[in-house]
Amino acid sequence: MLKTRFTEAFGIDYPIAQGGMQWVGRAPLVAAVANAGALGFITALTQPNPEALAKEIARCRDMTDKPFGVNLTILPTITPPPYAEYRRAIIEGGVKIVETAGYKPQEHVDDFKAHDIKVIHKCTAVRHALSAERMGVDAISIDGFECAGHPGEDDIPGLILIPAAANKVKVPMLASGGFGDGRGLVAALALGADGINMGTRFCVTQEAEIPESFKQKMVENDERATDLIFRTLHNTARVMKNAVSQEVVAIEKRGGAKFEDVQHLVAGKRGLAAMEHGDTDGGIWSAGMIQGLINDIPTVKELVDRIVAEAEEIIDGRLAQMVHRYAEAAQ
Ligand code: NAD
User: Fold this and answer.
1) Mind telling me which CDD domains this protein's record contains (predicted)?
2) Complex ipTM above 0.90?
3) N or C: which end of the chain has fewer CB within 10 A?
């Protein structure tokens, strides 16, 4: 049994989370993750308005009796969403765990904490983790440069970022970015984390409501199949390499690009339409380097069970044997 401070604090079976994913974090996936013993998050901004989010929370509750959460991401957007109203829908929906991500979460954290909601803040730098800890969050999800979506601007991979954060952060900590199997889970625990958060890996499961073409593409892709866009705008995003991401990179490379120069290519609405049409070259799609380690499309339960079994086998088998052999040799 893989028990950690994270599983204890959040009342889940396994130290695995499925964090917020725009257009993917919907009730059927989140409920499947919860039913598999891990912790899933509905993505608030995937819902067109706070009323729809309230319905999605209720739908998820009909599908599972286990704990689940909601992600609220605060990053630059073309049309700023009414964050406070989404927050209200989360609180009034009786959600007990929230994942915040992005800039200046203080007012959200304060309100969630005032309503007895546990908050996990996802961030990409040790200084941001410490600042969130001072705000009173219950856990940190530290997101390395390998991740899909927004890795921040420091470019520190998990191998350094996770132990650097573990050296200073006192609350339980998830490692995020580049995780997808039992080896990654054991590595994260070894580096000082209390569990892992996975995005792209959960996208490529039976229950994720995205077209087969996207899942197949992520299976076929190797670890080099990502692009970093918005580098020059200081809002870096790691996305699946495709025709549109390459066009954005080319525009930025020319120098002096403004957001307006790429807006027609990167708009979330365009990405959503492309996804709904199964067109993997039609818009921007977030995916991480972990694509290189994704080779199948299992059910969520198969995936979670496999990761846990593999992690236990590594700890009890391979690693224990190394220590045992060393002890024998020393005799
Ligand atoms: P959107 O259509 O408003 O924007 C599309 C992309 O452009 C987003 O990545 C956004 O951060 C970026 N952007 C918008 N205005 C910008 C500006 N002025 N300067 C620089 N970059 C700008 O957003 P959406 O696709 O509808 O997504 C809604 C929210 O979810 C956004 O906050 C977005 O960042 C976030 N998101 C997060 C992830 C992730 O981290 N995994 C993936 C997709 C979207």
Assistant:
1) NPD_like
2) yes
3) C
- The fold of 5-210 is TIM Barrel (3.20.20)
pLDDT digits (tens, 9 = 90+) for 118-158: 999 999 999 999 999 999 999 999 999 999 999 999 999 99
Pairing of strands 237-240, 226-229: antiparallel
Q: How confident is the model at residue 320 (pLDDT cuts 50, 70, 90)?
A: very high
pTM of the predicted protein model: 0.96
Candidate of 22, 272, 285, 286 to mutate for ligand 1, largest count of ligand atoms within 8 Å of Cβ: 22
| Rounded Cα distance, 214 and 195, in Å | 27
